[in-house]
Write a structure and sequence with these properties.
CATH superfamily of the largest domain: Type I PLP-dependent aspartate aminotransferase-like (Major domain)
Number of helices: 15
CATH architecture of the largest domain: 3-Layer(aba) Sandwich
Structural class: alpha/beta
Bound molecules: pyridoxal-5'-phosphate
Helix content: 40-55%
Largest sheet: 7 strands, mixed
Shape: globular
Length: 448
């Protein structure tokens, strides 16, 4: 065993002895769900924690262990769990029915809130997930331009439909299991934060490209912010080439009152939304230029079919409205400042421990990478030390901090200074031994 493995073995044993009920649920789950889980990103070894309840910024597992929730359902929870106002909105809507099979007023109210916050969004439609939001935004772009190819970035994540499910991790030119061949041949891969290369690919493929889709801060790709010049440069070149620009703000909408596009001063043709706008219930939305979105107008011949049994359902709309009402400009600024402060503090701890690692991010979302900074591309993320990330994950769980296995940390407005200080303490306690193990030379002949 190398020094890191020697460190992880007792942490795994401690995890197992603290969580026998999660283990029992996992064994039962494995009989009805492949791999005992129903979401790739939530699975981790030796088995996922089964969480029974959440309140504010805390979670309790099936064994009654308490955790600080620094994941917030991969960014979708803005105010933590069971916020009284969101809860109340759900109770009230529950008494009126959750979905009625036709249009409802709440759809209009939430759409008005979003279009008021994001001026580039002149019209929008609701769907049930971020995957659907990027699928339908891309479909609008294809219908509008009459072209079929799209550009996404190497390492970019925009959900699970075929065209965006390629090149999520290296090797970027391979076809993941189950995808159609068109998924590779109809996708041009740009490189995040490399404007020269990406712009020249757009120019080269201008006659075939319907759209470029990009996140202003890469989420699953490693919480890596785009350089402002990169996104602004993409806007200039796409405009010059008649290719639509789609900003995937499914995560990043929480980073600005009007999303990251407000910070960047960029007006995309289309934007994809999800996560926080559903207030903790499933949602997606896509919108932008009125002329592009008119491809969905059912009164026009040949309109795109956009079905979805739960599109704009009243329960989700009510929770989304309550959530955004609480997230005014001062609240956005306070949450971003709290995240920036935490990130600086964690990077200070890393510097004190003299380890090649960096916490990168923007405002309330960030990720720890065991790689030499500055980290600006997802390729650096993928080349980082995954074993150290896993060690950090299990150590943090054992210290009462719930994070993404890949070490993404997400804040909610339910946290205060004491919560952040507690997390920093847990982070330092977990990092210290890992940093020491990484500095220890491996015994000769040991396998990594
Ligand atoms: C940037 C981005 N786009 C799209 C998606 C897909 O959203 P959903 O999981 O709601 O389908 C996600 C989900 O994590 C995301 O982070």
């Amino acid at each position: 065993m190398n020094p890191l493995e020697q460190l992880v073995a007792p942490e795994l044993a401690a995890f197992q002895s603290r969580t026998p009920k999660s283990r029992a649920w996992y064994e039962r789950a494995a009989k009805v769900m492949p791999g005992g889980d129903t979401r790739t990103g939530t699975f981790h070894l030796p088995y996922p924690l089964f969480i029974s309840r959440g309140q504010g910024c805390r979670l309790w597992d099936a064994d009654g262990n308490e955790y600080l929730d620094f994941l917030n359902n991969f960014t979708s929870l803005l105010h933590g769990h069971a916020h009284p106002k969101v809860h109340q909105a759900l109770i009230e809507q529950g008494t009126q029915g959750t979905v009625h099979g036709t249009a409802n007023e709440l759809q209009v109210l939430l759409a008005e809130m979003l279009t008021a916050r994001v001026p580039s969004v002149e019209r929008l439609r609701f769907c049930n997930s971020g995957t659907e939001a990027t699928l339908f935004a891309l479909r609008a772009a294809k219908a509008f331009t009459g072209r079929v190819k799209i550009m996404k970035m190497e390492g970019g994540y925009h959900g699970s439909h075929d065209q965006v499910a390629v090149a999520m991790a290296p090797p970027y030119d391979s076809r993941p299991a189950g995808l159609s061949p068109g998924a590779l041949s109809e996708v041009i891969l740009g490189r995040y934060n490399d404007l020269d290369r990406t712009a020249s690919l757009i120019r080269q493929h201008r006659d075939e490209l319907a759209a470029v889709i990009v996140e202003p801060v890469m989420g699953a790709g490693g919480s890596i912010p785009a350089a402002a010049e990169f996104i602004r440069g993409l806007r200039t070149v796409t405009e010059e080439c008649g290719v639509l620009l789609i900003l995937d703000e499914i995560i990043t909408f929480r980073l600005g009152y009007g999303g990251m596009q407000e910070h960047l001063g960029v007006r995309p043709d289309l934007t994809a939304f999800g996560k926080i706008i559903g207030g903790g219930l499933p949602i997606g939305a896509f919108g932008g230029r009125a002329d592009v979105m008119a491809t969905y107008d059912p009164t026009r011949p040949g309109a795109i079919v956009h079905s979805g049994t739960y599109n704009g359902n009243a329960a989700t709309m009510a929770a989304g409205i309550a959530t955004l009402e609480l997230f005014d400009r001062p609240a956005v600024a306070a949450l971003n400042a709290a995240g920036d402060g935490l990130r600086a503090r964690l990077n200070g701890i890393i510097a004190n421990h003299g380890v090649d690692a960096e916490v990168v991010g923007f405002g309330s979302t960030m990720q720890l990478h065991f790689a030499k900074g500055p980290i600006t591309t997802p390729a650096q993320t993928h080349a980082g030390n995954r074993a150290a990330q896993q060690a950090m994950h299990i150590s943090l769980l054992n210290r009462g901090a719930f994070t993404a296995a890949r070490q993404m940390y997400v804040l909610s407005t339910a946290m205060n200074d004491a919560t952040l200080a507690d997390f920093a303490t847990q982070f330092e306690a977990a990092l210290g031994p890992i940093a020491a193990a990484l500095r220890t030379p491996e015994p000769a002949g040991s396998a990594r």
